[in-house]
TrEMBL record, chain A:
The keyword Glycoprotein does not apply. Belongs to the cytochrome ubiquinol oxidase subunit 1 family. Pfam families: Cyt_bd_oxida_I. It comes from Microbispora rosea. The lineage of its organism: Bacteria, Bacillati, Actinomycetota, Actinomycetes, Streptosporangiales. One of its GO terms (molecular function) is metal ion binding. The chain crosses the membrane at residues 28-51, 71-91, 103-130, 142-166, 198-219, 231-250, 337-356, 368-389, 415-437. It is a multi-pass membrane protein. Its main location: membrane. This is Cytochrome bd-I ubiquinol oxidase subunit 1 apoprotein. Keywords: Cell membrane, Electron transport, Heme, Iron, Membrane, Metal-binding, Transmembrane, Transmembrane helix, Transport.
TrEMBL record, chain B:
It comes from the Bacteria. One of its GO terms (molecular function) is oxidoreductase activity, acting on diphenols and related substances as donors, oxygen as acceptor. This is Cytochrome bd-I ubiquinol oxidase subunit 2 apoprotein. It is found in: Cell membrane.
Length: 455, 340
């Protein structure tokens, strides 16, 4: 790229007006936060669906096959909604953040190009999988679902690796304010890629499992305890429940990563004002001035978690100039929310494991079924909270240490109008999606989504 | 040939395929809008649904592909276009949401009022999206997008004669392609009566497209002289080819040679799609920015080309499989979603 073109882009038009920046950030947050829910289901549901279909075919089990058909119908709608809500994001990258894309588009383009290929395969094979259900042999049909599953997971990896780059920008040099020596592979495989991608892919499977199980937990609460509903609960809940302890280990790994690479974000997550040994683990509280108030503190907790010793020194916010610190309270509380939900889901998984081990049945207690019915919503809240931690915890940077969010935003005026329109469109979209999915839940179990009744 | 040139060609191929495939899906929405009352229009809507259902998502991905190649390969052009044309692109993005979501919702809803509501949203956004994308093309082609962030006129860049021509022409072309494809799909689905309906519509759409294109010559002469010169000189063979293919398509439609017209109509549109970049080559943002000035570093372009090549090996056979499956799908009176 010629310097004459690139230099003014990096300098951008200076910080945009406050209201426009807030509008752009809110619009991005809303559309990303919306898409991530559908995207999680798009990544995780195909695996659940294929497992169920495979089981049903192998054993000639009609209950499994009915579940697979029902879930395929939901996947058809979710994939369509996910495809379009994801497209909006790629528009918004340029509409809202041209300063980021003009300067660094070439650095982070590679994972998006790979994601484009994966998305292609996903879209093609989901068309075949859904519409050719009764035109292919059962075995061939099952096989057409495999690329959907693989491409979904691959998409998640590619997109999250681009986000990881924003946390750990690598693969380029800045010379006199312009980007040179771009190495797209080094940018993609930056240090934040392994923890972030693993954390997100596991989260996607947990959301899919808990959300699907929630629907059947409601049915169990209403006394529909036939095998179809029990299986509909058990299969997804087992998958999600088994992944919950794994996710807690991955989360710990991610926090350790942050301690080393993004200590400011970790300090904000933990609400830790001062650097030093004997750092406590704080739960809850509000950050006022330069300290955390009203928090429940476990002495030495953070030092033990990060360095396995009460004497381990943990970096606090005091090492970061105050202009470069993220807002602490929302990051800290969202982090607590995510961890708290993780622990609750772990307890639920343990409860099911215990009763299954002793009695081979799903707990009948409402104390189990109520939270199980809420587990899908809880898992979604945990994902959203986690993304707030990642994104708000990186502020004021859009590219950590390199480009401030205020310098990346579109300098065009009246960005709030776009936000307003987005709120209206997404409200309608949310109401319609929920409405259509509820129609599906309420309908009697039926034949496959796209196939004939006689199939 | 340099790598940036190849990438430009790959991107343009993607855009042309989006116009030919995704464009026809939008056109299907327009015919859905004009199909008539709920009962009278039902058979046409079913055929449109049958034709779009399995493929629209895959066709839509071409747009994503183009966006990603543009921002990776020519990042400053992407930033300039997106920031100056913020308004029509935001509206196109919402149109994309409305079209895709409403189409999926309509298939999954049971009551007539639900289907009408979602159907209206699907059809309306199918018209608005290509219109706004067409205005964007007009803005770039008439040299109204300067480099830098939001440096162009936020309204005037896309509210002008060339942009309006671009918008109307995009809608007309989508409608034309859709009607042509639907003729062939109707014959395949053993619905000869429906083929007649869409034959009439294809002929009408061809006439409208031809008139808009002819009128467009005058518009470009007055509003975008540089583009006009390019189209009447370097790109003239493509413009003539498009006109000849367009006339041939009308003749073939008249003779009911639906499979052949599918090919000639697509080629006519492809010729126009290629005429534009040939007319303004090597400029990407006329009058100043050439593709070489805007190109990313060679390492990036090589990596994207490698990904595109590897991707083509996976994606193109898969698309062939999808089309083969789609063409073998039986048309059912109850539509593809009987298990409601």
């Amino acid at each position: 790229m010629r310097p004459a073109l690139a230099a003014p882009l990096i300098a951008a038009a200076g910080p945009a007006g406050g209201a426009d920046l807030v509008s752009a950030r809110t619009q991005m947050a809303l559309s990303l936060g919306w898409h991530i829910i559908v995207a999680c289901l798009g990544v995780g549901m195909p695996a659940l669906l294929l497992f169920t279909e495979w089981r049903g075919l192998r054993r000639g089990d009609d209950d499994y096959l009915r579940l697979a058909r029902r879930w395929a119908k939901a996947v058809a709608v979710l994939f369509a909604v996910g495809a379009v809500s994801g497209t909006i994001l790629s528009f918004e990258m340029g509409l809202l953040w041209p300063g980021l894309m003009g300067a660094y588009g070439q650095v982070i383009g590679l994972p998006f190009a790979l994601e484009g290929i994966a998305f292609f395969l996903e879209a093609i094979f989901i068309g075949i999988y859904l519409y050719a259900w009764d035109r292919l042999s059962p075995r061939a049909h099952l096989l057409t679902g495999v690329p959907v599953m693989v491409a979904g997971v691959a998409s998640a990896f590619f997109v999250v690796s681009a986000n990881a780059w924003m946390n750990q920008p690598r693969g380029f040099l800045l010379e006199g304010g312009r980007v040179t020596h771009v190495s797209p592979w080094a940018a993609m495989f930056n240090p934040a890629t392994p923890p972030q991608t693993i954390h997100m892919i596991v989260a996607a499977f947990m959301v899919s499992g808990f959300a699907t199980a929630s629907v059947y937990a409601v049915a169990l609460l209403r006394g529909r305890r036939d095998r179809y509903h029990r299986l509909g609960f058990l299969v997804p809940f087992t998958v999600a429940g088994a992944l919950t302890p794994v996710q807690i280990v991955v989360g710990d790994y991610t926090a350790r990563f942050l301690a080393r690479y993004q200590p400011t974000k970790l300090a904000a997550m933990e609400g830790l004002p001062r650097t030093g040994p004997h750092a406590p683990l704080s739960v809850g509280g509000i950050f006022v001035g330069d300290r955390l108030r009203y928090a429940f503190e476990i002495p030495n907790g953070l030092s033990l978690l990060v360095g396995y010793s009460p004497d381990a020194v943990v970096q606090g916010l005091d090492r970061t100039p105050s202009a470069d610190r993220p807002p602490v309270t929302p990051v800290h509380l969202c982090f607590d929310t995510m961890v708290g939900i993780g622990v609750l889901l772990l307890l639920l998984a343990a409860w099911l494991a215990f009763t299954w081990w002793r009695r081979r049945e799903i707990p009948r207690s409402r104390l189990f079924l109520w939270p199980a019915a809420a587990s899908g919503v809880l898992a979604v809240v945990a994902v959203e909270a986690g993304w707030v931690v990642t994104e708000v915890g990186r502020q004021p940077w859009v590219v950590y240490g390199r480009l401030r969010t205020a310098d990346a935003v579109n300098p065009a005026p009246n960005l709030w109008a776009g936000l307003l329109l987005l709120v209206v469109v997404y409200t309608v979209l949310t109401v319609s999606t929920v409405y259509v999915l509820r129609l599906m839940v309420r309908a009697r179990p039926v034949a496959a989504p796209q196939e004939r009744e006689t199939a | 040939m340099e790598a940036a040139q190849v990438l430009l060609g790959v991107m343009w191929l993607g855009l042309t395929l989006y116009a030919l495939l995704g464009g026809a899906d939008f056109g299907g929405g327009l015919w859905d809008l004009l199909a008539g009352g709920s009962r009278a229009g039902m058979p046409q809507r079913r055929l449109i649904e049958h034709s779009l259902g399995p493929v629209w998502e895959a066709n839509h991905v071409w747009l994503i592909f183009v966006l990603v190649v543009l921002w990776t390969g020519f990042p400053t052009v992407f930033a300039a276009v997106m920031s100056t044309l913020y308004i029509p692109l935001t509206l196109a993005a919402f149109g994309i949401i409305g079209r895709g979501a409403a189409f999926a919702f309509r298939k999954s809803s049971t009551e007539l009022w639900q289907q009408r509501l979602f159907g209206a949203a699907f059809a309306l956004s199918s018209v608005l999206t290509p219109f706004f994308l067409g205005t964007v093309a007009g803005a770039v082609a008439s040299g109204r997008v300067p480099p830098g962030l939001a440096r162009g006129s936020l309204v005037g860049a896309w509210v002008n004669p060339t942009s309006m021509l671009g918008g109307v022409l995009a809608v007309a072309v989508c409608a034309y392609l859709a009607a042509v494809y639907l003729c062939d799909d109707a014959v395949r689905s053993r619905l000869p009566g429906m083929a007649e309906v869409f034959r009439r519509r294809a002929l009408a759409a061809a006439a409208v497209t031809g008139v808009v294109a002819l009128g467009g010559i005058g518009v470009l002469h007055a509003d975008a002289p540089r583009l006009f010169t390019g189209l009447t000189h370097r790109a003239l063979p493509l413009v003539v080819a498009s006109a000849v293919l367009g006339v041939a398509s009308i003749a073939l439609l008249w003779l009911r040679r639906y499979l052949l017209v599918r090919g000639t109509a697509a080629l006519a549109v492809a010729a126009v799609m290629c005429g534009w970049p040939v007319a303004q080559y090597p400029l990407m943002l006329p009058p100043a920015v050439s593709f070489r000035q805007a190109a990313a570093e060679p390492a990036v372009i090589t990596a994207v080309l490698a990904v595109a090549a590897a991707g083509a090996l996976l994606v193109l056979p898969s698309i062939a499989l999808l089309l083969a499956v789609q063409h073998r799908l039986p048309f059912e009176r109850g539509g593809p979603y009987p298990g409601r």
